[in-house]
Amino acid sequence: MSLFSHRTHASPKANTSLPASNWQRRIGANQRTRTAAIPPWLINTASLIVMVFLVALSLSIGVADFSWSGILQSIISHSANADSALLLVSRIPRTVAIVLTGIAMAVAGMIIQVVLKNRFVEPSMVGATQSAALGLLVVSLLFPASALIVKMGVATIAAMLGMMLFMLLIHRIPPTDFLMIPLIGIVFGGIIEAITTFIAYQTESLQMLSVWQFGDFSGVLAGRYELLWLTGGLCVLAYIIADKLTIIGLGDNIALNLGISKRQVTWIGVGMVAMMSAVVVVTVGMIPFIGLVVPNIVSRIMGDKLRRSLPAVALLGASAVLLCDIIGRSIRYPFEVPVATVFGVVGTVLFLWLLLRAPVEQ
After folding, report:
1. How far is it, in rounded angstroms, from Cα 227 to Cα 188?
2. Residue 12: predicted pLDDT
3. How many CB atoms lie within 10 A of CB 191?
4. What is the rounded CA–CA span in Å between residue 152 and residue 261?
5. Taking the mean position of all CA atoms in its chain, how far away is CA 252?
6. Cβ neighbours, 10 Å, residue 324
């Protein structure tokens, strides 16, 4: 039996014969194919304008003194000053890292939702980020002098193994139990996180582990974030294979009839999600709920076609993380609240709204 075939054995006739609870009817209504309510170009244009505004605001906010007039003076005089040095060394790298992280986690969430055919999962709910942190901790303890690319590779392999184990756990879940998958994922991720914390406690590495468990951009400087550009390339790859991923999400029989290899596309999707999660954890730490909230909001507005909605998912993901980082830097100025904490609060509220909202009218 295939590892990724837990949806293949349920026929439409068998599904209709099962008693449907209010939860199942509500979630089932959300799984139907939706069409775009607003023109995609309008949504993407508005999202880009909002993101540019937030980028400018992010570059302007910080503890150190900074002025745009000093940047203009540096450009006119063709000489570096304190403002230009701060912009190049700290503000631009931090803002770029925020944008790339938001894009990566939102796109990764969209991919895993398509692969698992469930709107209520994201990388942190399938054990990807927790497994990446566990792999990163193990390699840091066993080989502390290893290169960053080695640690990222081990974290990626650990994330893939964690996702494969999760898929084995949900292998026999009926397709009507849409809420069981995220619930199992939360428990599964909690177990891996508990194991990681126990190992860190025994090895006196809790402080090092806390850096990876709470996403924070305060330590991002030039030379410490460049691995995130890999996620940008993976997002481009996701856009290239978007049509195949969409076909996989429509069902196994449709993919087979159209000549799409479900196993191959699924492995590619899982590998991309694992690598994105590993790179983000290695660079800035875990940030929950981005991959859950953003794809659901975009899907509600633009429909389910991945190639059409993926740019909006990327832009909204970047804007969401930028906004939460700006809030985290502002509410206790000059101190910072980690962006994972801010988005954790916002994401929890939005997740509950996604669970409790009324079904979409068809």
Report:
1. 28
2. 42
3. 12
4. 28
5. 25
6. 26
